[in-house]
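hey so i finally got around to running the thing on that chain from the lab meeting. sorry it took forever, my laptop kept dying and i had to restart like 3 times. anyway pasting the input first so we r on the same page abt which one it is
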Amino acid sequence: MKKKAFITGINGQDGSYLAELLVEKDYEVYGIVRRNSIAEHQESRIDHLVGMGVETEYGDLLDVSSLERMIRTIQPDEIYNIAAQSHVRISMDIPQFTVQTNALGLLNVLEAYKNNCPKARFYQASSSEMFGRSIDEDGYQRETTPMHPTSPYGCTKVFGFNMVQHYRNAYKLFASNGILFNHESPRRGFEFVSRKITSGVARIKKGLQKKLKLGNINSKRDWGHAQDYVDAMWLMLQQNNPNDFVIGTGKQHSVENFAEKAFAHVGLNYKDYLVIDKNLIRPAEVDSLLADYTKAKKELKWEPKISFEDLVAGMVESDLEIATNLKY
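ok and heres what got predicted. didnt touch it at all, straight out
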């Protein structure tokens, strides 16, 4: 009998790659999609999976009835909670919505899981933003690094992280946290700085845009590819016992370096096009995120496969294709 997986946020970057991975592993995959006013576009990342063992239904993390009904009906073997308001800067503009979705929403999923299929295995999408400005003496962040978030988004993720541990300990559930550092892909939303850069580079190269506006270009991040990171999510739920894992590359690049690489890929000098916009600088900034993924490497046998250079190049190439279609 095929395994069944239930994914919240299945139509997002991570959810779509995860759905692909699980289909390849012969799972039956189910997911919830939030209804919005542009319904014809909201499942574009998973359109190619229709008829391949993936089914979606409208639902919401704040709608307990839809969560309870779907989980009770499907009886999944694995649950992946990936849905969230996941943009750090936007979380400062809409903090109440971010808290409701990410904190209360996670609690709703945990309750539906506990009440309807407690033998299933559960993955929670935690985040490196939970660490905030907290860095170990060697410059890295790991599972034992104290958490001092600097945004509503980071705060909600700390709540979720702790709740997953609580449900794991109190109710003996197989519930694991994946503390994922920044991960990108051609499926990244345009509001994120990585996609803003690669899309801007493509549009500038095609003559559709003149300048690229960015905020703090000195922030340093540990950037990996989402396709690699969903492998780690799956591996966490294949272990003998639930646990929490940091997932990253162990390498760090600044926003400026990301832009430099992206422009260089199309033969341009980023300094000729980059404009610093102070309005894009966050009220509270995390200066440095760098993962020590030793635990994942040892216990999950996981390592990233796609390099930073290939990540940036792949995103630029994808956005060049989009820009070409827009131009003509």
